[in-house]
Amino acid sequence: MIPATDPDAVRRGPALSGTRPRGLARALGGWLAVMVTAVAVLRILDLLPGVVSGKPRGVTSVTTVEDAERSLRARLLLPGVFPDTLRWPPAAVDIYAGPPAAAAVMFEGATSHDVRLIVCQTVEPAADVPPRLLPPGLILTSARTNVGDQPGTLTRIQLDDGRIVHEVTWQTDGRALAVRFDGTVEQLMTLARSLKAGRL
Predict the structure, then answer these.
(1) Does domain 59-197 have CATH number 3.40.50?
(2) Which of 45, 138, 140, 175 is deepest in the core (most CB within 10 A)?
């Protein structure tokens, strides 16, 4: 047993007791740095698909309407009337897993590669379609209307590329719908009223 008056014991005692807290703090600091780095990397990986595809977060593209229906486990409503100013099949189909689960089907013009018609719909009850499925724009005017016997809203929108389009939104059979068209209001309403499950 070392006497308490031993000068070496006096020197060693404080040095040994002070090592543990510093070592623990160092270990905790290292662990915290690893966790923060892991969270940052996971967040970047989560955002990467959207950055690469140019799609908003949560929105993915599929090849066909049938692929969208399989993914969402629901039939999509499509126009029963299809003007010759549009091109079939759809140029793109986007889906959003939700909530609410929804899809946007896009059609190009017959003589251009501009998207002229977007049919956007939820496949479950919702107040509105997810805004991330539609290109952003500035609402210029808004008015009440009817699609068949359902109340809706008709809006005039200026897109970021300067084009003016019309859009009608309403609800039917437990779905929220939005049809956006680069054309006349009359054509838009005809397309909206013709929506049905099935193929042309």
Answers:
(1) no
(2) 175
Tokens of 198: 């099935």
CB-based contact 83:187 (threshold 8 Å): yes
Which residue from 154, 198, 151, 188 is spatially nearest to 172, judged by alpha carbons? Answer: 151
**Going by C-beta distance under 8 Å and a sequence separation of 6 or more, which residues neighbour residue 21?**
none
Q: Would strands 175-181 and 115-122 be described as parallel, antiparallel, or unpaired? A: antiparallel
Position 52 pLDDT exceeds 70: no
DSSP string for 50-98: HHHHTPPTTEEEESSHHHHHHHHTSPPEEESS--TTB-SS-SEEEEE--
Q: Is the pTM of this model over 0.70?
A: yes
